[in-house]
Amino acid sequence: MNNKQINLLIEFILLFNLFHYLNQTGERPFICHYENCNKGFITKSNLKAHMCKHTGIKPFICNFENCKKTYTRKCRFKIHLRMHVYRYNEYYIII
Q1: 75-86: b or e for each residue (b if 16 or more CB lie within 10 Å)?
Q2: For residue range 45-54, what is the model confidence (pLDDT) as tens digits?
Q3: Are 64 and 70 in contact (CB under 8 A)?
Q4: How far apart are CA 91 and CA 57, in angstroms?
Q5: What is the pLDDT of residues 70-90, one digit of tens each?
Q6: What pTM was computed for the model?
Q7: Residue 71: what are its φ and ψ, rounded to 5°?
Q8: In 1-95, which residue ranges form alpha helices assigned H by DSSP?
Q9: What range defines the domain where residue 15 resides?
Q10: Which of 5, 10, 33, 69 could bond to 1 as cystine, CB 3.0-4.6 Å?
Q11: How far is residue 30's CA from residue 82's CA, in Å, rounded to a whole number?
């Protein structure tokens, strides 16, 4: 392993341990301050996705043949795009 790989592995282990600790303790350091919500989250990205519920913003929009479905999370958007790929038996690179 080179130094970059070792550093990535160490970072992964540290993040895994942090998430495990937060799950075990129930601690949620990222709090939604929207009116009367105060819901807590383990990660900032989960809070950001949650805020889309309050604002109605869905930043990921499907432009495949006039589909226009929208999503708050990139991972769910990617799953949706795969449905189009499998339906039409075409190959697209989904990044």
Answers
A1: eebeebbeebee
A2: 889 889 988 9
A3: no
A4: 29
A5: 998 888 999 998 888 766 555
A6: 0.57
A7: -140, 150
A8: 3-25, 44-55, 74-88
A9: 3-55
A10: 5
A11: 31
